[in-house]
Automatic annotation (TrEMBL):
It comes from Pitta sordida (Hooded pitta). Residues 1-83 form the Ig-like domain. This is FCRL1 protein. It comes from the Eukaryota. CDD domains: Ig. The chain crosses the membrane at residues 99-121. PROSITE patterns: IG_LIKE (PS50835).
């Protein structure tokens, strides 16, 4: 029977920013083939397969993730193993730093232009 399902990276309270990629891998330490993997978010099925790839996470991807590994080694009995839960917290992307940098750059450019005009007028007189 399948046993010891784990998720890697398995950081509890994993916090990422919106737009970041997230990949979770599910594996088992014990289990004869074929083993199937089902991904759950907040106890609802969201995907199949050993990898859960979220290319561009959004706030709606926040939640508790768990992997369920299943096999049927004798063709009759079904065995399942649930991984420990992993909490994924998606936060809004910070745009403040970009706006501040653009504001500073714009001000410096303006300052250089004003100085150029002052120097030009001074030399003209």
């Amino acid at each position: 029977p399948v046993a010891n399902a784990t998720i890697t990276p398995g950081q509890p309270s994993s916090q990422v920013q919106a737009g970041d990629p997230v990949t979770l891998h599910c594996s088992v330490q014990v289990g004869s083939a074929p083993v199937t993997f089902t991904w759950l978010r907040n106890s609802h099925e969201v995907a199949q397969g050993p990898l859960l790839v979220l290319e561009d996470v959004e706030l709606r991807h926040s939640g508790t993730y768990q992997c369920m590994a299943t096999n049927q080694p004798d063709g009759h009995r079904v065995f399942q193993a649930l991984s420990p839960e992993v909490e994924l917290v998606v936060t809004p992307r910070e745009h403040g730093d970009t706006a501040v940098a653009a504001g500073v750059s714009g001000f410096l450019l303006f300052l250089v232009l004003v100085l150029g005009v002052i120097i030009g007028l001074h030399q003209w007189h």
